[in-house]
Write a structure and sequence with these properties.
Blueprint: E1 12-14, E2 30-32, E3 41-43, E4 54-58, H1 70-84, E5 89-95, H2 99-111, E6 114-120, H3 132-139, E7 143-147, H4 153-171, E8 175-177, H5 187-197, E9 206-211, H6 215-226, E10 232-237, H7 242-255, H8 268-271, E11 273-275, H9 288-301, H10 310-323, E12 332-336
Parallel strand pairs: 4-12, 5-6, 5-8, 6-7, 9-10, 9-12, 10-11
Antiparallel strand pairs: 1-2, 3-4
């Protein structure tokens, strides 16, 4: 694969950054046009929302199929950067059920780029079932390296860099290390914010999304700040902690030149409300109650949430609206559906599908079943 060059020139497009990014550094000049552009915003009739509140949803889960969700927006900038630097392979890290690695592997495969992915997982690779995101990652030609879990963010970045250097050294291949705070990663949601400004964003008071590495929240919070801080940006932390996330976002702020190298200047804590709690018993671990909630939202609204991120985030959004409403700036909330539908396919939903009264058997034509 090393000698093949990316067949991607037709999907790289010039990126016209919005005017309010003029004070930022490392503004990308190009992006990929990969999935559907412009995802809809519509009212979301969740039950159990307190009176007076309106919740809307931005459907970034509908951006594509295997390339749906928030990661595709970020990777459109990162992979364009990789291609323009002449890289023929990329290195990244994530959990075995990572949406990020699935999206990266699929995008890389269609671009003719070799993906090398570090899987943070202590299990023996042979005992990890090929289902859900992991199946899709494996269906591509991505090369997998199992590394310990948990792994400090710094060591994760170090390993990504080390493997990229080894690829260059041993194969001569130019490898692009994907590091959230040293790549145009967060521009994915700067771009999304700009898209939403053309969709009536100014009528909302708050934006809520599931958050993990922090790129989505960083892009939204920076854009909101630079356009006059009209909204309040919240992240439901489903991976690690709010304080670690602020650390990463501060580092992203330095990358885009809004914070000085000595740490002075704009602070993540001043522009972004990271909410601890949604992670619950741990990253990727679901409670029965959360799985039933995901089932209920599908039944009532037809929106499929993923148990790892968006299910927890929505569950806690409703909880905070009911018990802690003063954290919100106002009453018109926009929830960003960051995707993750394939998280539903790893078998865990069996637990809440047991007593489904919607299922009957009808064998004989004449034995018409009871209906309600
Ligand atoms: C990765 C991911 C997130 C978190 O996004 P960050 O930008 O890393 O904070 C949220 N939701 C889903 C479905 C994800 O895959």
């Amino acid at each position: 694969m090393g000698s093949s060059s990316p067949s991607s020139s037709d999907i790289i497009v010039k990126y016209e950054a919005p005017a309010w990014t003029c004070g930022m550094k490392n503004v990308p000049t190009h992006k990929l046009k990969f999935s559907n552009v412009g995802t809809p915003i519509h009212k979301w009739k969740l039950s159990d929302i307190p009176d007076g509140y309106d919740v809307y949803i931005k459907r970034d889960d509908l951006r594509g199929c295997a390339t749906s969700g928030n990661k595709v927006r970020c990777l459109e900038f990162v992979l364009a950067d990789a291609i323009r630097q002449g890289c023929t392979s990329v290195v990244s890290a994530g959990s075995s059920h990572s949406n990020n690695l699935r999206t990266l592997a699929i995008m890389a495969a269609s671009l003719g780029i070799q993906a090398h992915v570090l899987i943070k997982c202590n299990q023996n690779p042979c005992s990890v079932p090929s289902v859900a995101n992991y199946l899709m990652t494996r269906l591509t030609n991505a090369k997998l390296y199992f590394v310990p879990w948990p792994l400090e963010y710094d060591e994760e970045c170090q390993r990504v860099q080390l493997l990229a250097e080894k690829l260059r050294h041993d194969t001569g291949e130019k490898a692009y290390p994907i590091v959230f705070d040293d790549s145009p990663w967060m521009y994915g949601y700067v771009d999304a914010f700009n898209e939403m400004m053309n969709q009536g964003l100014e009528s909302f008071t708050d934006i809520v999304s599931a958050s993990g590495g922090g790129g989505t929240s960083a892009g939204l919070a920076i854009s909101n700040y630079l356009t006059g801080s009209k909204l309040k940006i919240h992240g439901m932390v489903c991976y690690e902690t709010a304080s670690n996330q602020h650390k990463t976002i501060n580092s992203m702020l330095r990358y885009v030149g809004l914070q000085q190298e000595d740490g002075t200047g704009l602070q993540s804590e001043d522009i972004y409300n990271a909410i601890d709690g949604p992670i619950g018993e741990g990253y990727g671990i679901s409670t029965q109650q959360e799985l039933e909630f995901v089932h209920g939202v599908a039944q009532q609204t037809g929106v499929l949430l993923g148990p790892v991120y968006t299910g927890k985030a929505t569950y806690h959004l409703i909880k905070h609206l009911k018990t802690n409403p003063k954290i919100f700036k106002g009453k018109k909330i926009l929830f960003i559906h960051t995707g993750g539908v394939f998280e539903l396919f790893d078998g865990r939903m069996e637990e809440v599908m047991y007593s489904d009264e919607n299922v009957q058997v009808w064998r004989d034509l004449s034995d018409v079943p009871a209906v309600t």
